[in-house]
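Notes on consecutive records. When two proteins share a document, each keeps its own sequence and its own C-alpha cell line. Never mix them. Below: protein one.
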Amino acid sequence: MTDFVRGDYVLTDDRERVNLAWVSRWLTEEAYWAVGRSGDVVARSIEGSLPFSVFAGDEQVAFSRVVTDGATFAWICDVFVAEEHRGRGLGTWMVDTIVATLSERGLQRFLLATKDAQEVYRKSGFAELQGAHRFMEIDRRPNRAFILGTA
C-alpha cells in the first residue's frame, strides 16, 4: 500500500479504502463507457484489478483501476474525477502516478482508451495507438455503438 499526498488530496492504492458504493454508482450511472454495468460487475472488476483512489479527507473524489499482468503490460481504465473536483489536475496526477509506480516495477507498456480526453492523456505521455491494425477484439457490450459514437 502506498499513499501520495498533494495539497489536501491523498492518492492511494489501498483497495480497502475504495468506496464501492460511490464508484459503482458513478460508473453505472454517469460513465459513458460503463452505464448499465451492474454493481456486481463493478465489484468484480475492482477485485481483479489494481484500484487507485483519490480522497479529500474521508471523501473519495476520484478513481481508476489498472488491469495488468504485473510484469509487461497495464491497461488503465475507469478513470473518473467527481465533477466538483475536476480542473485541478487530479486525473493527470492519478495517471502519472500509476505510470510511474508501475514503471518502477518494470512495466513498459501502458494502454488506455478515451472518447474525448486525448489532450489530457497526452500530458502523461500517451499517444495514438501505433499499429492499431494488429489489434483484434471481441466486443459484446450492448452499448458498444454508443461508446464508439456510431449509434
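Protein two starts on the next line and is unrelated to protein one.
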Amino acid sequence: MVSILDQPDMPERIRRGRLGTGGNSPAEFRQYMLADLVKWAKLVKESGAKLD
C-alpha cells in the first residue's frame, strides 16, 4: 500500500476519484458513519436482502 501511495501520480488520481486524502475530526467522521449506516440500513431493508 505504501509503495502505491508513494507513486508521484497518486495524489492527482485520488483527487480525480474523489477519494480525498484530507482528514476531519473524530466527531465529523462519526456523523458521516452514522449517516452512512442509516442510508445502507434503509437500502438493505427495502431490498429484502437476508443473510444466509
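For the record: Residues 26 and 32 are 10 Å apart (CA to CA).
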